[in-house]
Amino acid sequence: MAGKLRLAPPPSGAGSLTVSEAVEAFLAALEAAGASPSTLRAYRAALESFRDFVGGDTRVSELTPAHYTEWLRRLRRLGPRRPRSSDPRAREATIHFYSVYVRRLLSWLGVAEGLPAAPRGRRGYSGALAWGDVERLLEAARDLVDAVIVALLAESGLRARELLGLRVADVDLAAGVIRVVGKYGKERMVPLGPMGRILVSELIRSKQLGPGDRLIPITYQALYKRLKSLAARAGIDPARVRPHVLRHTFATEALRRGVSLPALQRLLGHSDVKVTQLYLHLVWEDVRREYERAFHQAPAPQPPQWAPPWPGGQPYTAQQPPAWQPPQAPWQAPPSPWYPPQSPGGGGGHYINPRRPAAHQPA
What we know:
46% of the residues lie in helices and 4% in strands. It is mainly alpha-helical. It folds into two domains: 14-109, DNA polymerase, domain 1; 131-294, Intergrase catalytic core (hpI Integrase, Chain A), CATH 1.10.443.10. The protein is globular, with a radius of gyration of 37 Å.
């Protein structure tokens, strides 16, 4: 999150600050560096967990790496203070990020460098919808806002926060692109899909939105609930529909339709192509299903039959090997390279080498 933000140094005499004061000073430095509100909330949750463990009145000069180690052990044992999910993978990810945030605080204060972070665990794939499900969600839309939400998430691959941060001035309907501000404040241009272009244009016109107006002026919680309600109306299991699932749907559908991995990386705003490669897993599942449909569900091919090279034999099958039949013609020895003497007075036969030139054969 804030790992790429350049923070101002801590105040002079930081060692005399209490942990509570140090946490507030660090959060203020993050905000001054341009951290988003969601980043600040995530850092605050982690730092307050550490503060409550060591004690808010503890002096920074009293902190040691052992405090971090003991706090991390307790966190692994009891879990985050406000876990959002019972999913073990979500729990591991939360603990990982908590450890990253507290490490940065301690590094900023000069307490310790190079402390180990909790492992994140293997990233899981949260699934994707079939494109037919996206069309059903659009048909179930109750208003233009519903339709624009589905179109921009599934057809342009926006993150939820990117969608909610869009303003009318970010939309270029003539060129069919939108300017998106992603993680770390990075900007990128994303094409509008055919549905999105029509729906966004109609939304701006019908709502008479100005350049500075937000396109979707709702909170993340409202967005989440809208999608759940849309899923129920469309006859889709609401547990399968979330904002990020629609982003996954865009990515996997793009790969199925032939978009290259580097192009998809730019569209999604990924800094590392390894993150984009996650979507190849689902494409591989498509390949596997095609293979199974072709080879496992079709009737098994019969083994070939052919006549053996000997006379009188039966056609060979894998179930009934043929019985051996003796040759019908009398056996005859092959021609021999041994030749008798060429004259009565000769002293016996000699060997003719068939591979030797005639000029070098014995007389």
